[in-house]
Design a protein that fits this description.
mainly alpha; 7 helices; 87% helix; elongated
């Protein structure tokens, strides 16, 4: 085995060792991605289950209405059935929202994991394509410097404070149609109290 091959193997081993030290962090990310996957499927299955429960309740209501017509002579008798409608709609909406949230976070986490593995492969490829060990070290050093500078500039550009996060959450909440309905109810209650 030539000196260049031994040096190339040593550099490749060092790159592998450096990324092996990241495995603890990537394992945490993998665990979180697994939990998000479970959360996604739980809420995905909740949607049809809740819809079927709603249809079943509606069928029971129609059956009860046709078989006990005299029981439903006053509007107060309809309340147990009509009160469940907003409950089911809210649960279905919550399931859709949480499913989408889990999907978005899972995509972001998957992107970060891909970037880590991509960088490892890129450094190993740079090492194996270099003619001499010195060129390999120089290229890997240059690539690492570029990656660090890019990462730091990305963090600097995308720095978000807690105040910014609060504003984002509030704008997302205000764009929600349920928030608008709640605000209208709040205004209506204020008007009634006056």
């Amino acid at each position: 085995m030539s000196f260049d091959n031994v040096a190339e193997q040593n550099i490749s081993d060092k790159v592998s060792k450096a990324f092996d030290s990241l495995k603890d962090y990537t394992n945490v990310i993998e665990d979180e991605r697994f939990r998000l996957k479970i959360e996604y499927y739980v809420f995905l299955w909740c949607i049809p289950i809740l819809f079927l429960a709603f249809v079943g309740l509606y069928a029971f209501f129609i059956y009860d209405l046709t078989s006990n017509r005299e029981t439903f002579s006053r509007w107060i008798n309809f309340i147990p059935y009509t009160a469940s409608i907003p409950f089911f709609v809210a649960l279905i909406w919550l399931s859709v929202y949480l499913k989408c949230r889990a999907s978005k976070i899972s995509i972001e986490i998957s992107t970060r994991l891909f970037n880590i593995h991509y960088l490892e492969g890129l450094m190993k490829m740079t090492n194996s394509l270099s003619i001499t060990p010195e060129e390999s070290v120089r290229k890997i050093d240059h690539a690492t410097e570029l990656l660090m500078n890019n990462y730091l500039s990305h963090i600097k550009e995308n720095y978000i404070s807690e105040n910014d996060i609060s504003k984002l959450k509030m704008s997302e909440l205000k764009s929600n149609p349920y928030w608008k309905v709640l605000q209208e109810l709040k205004d209506l209650i204020k008007m009634i109290k006056k």
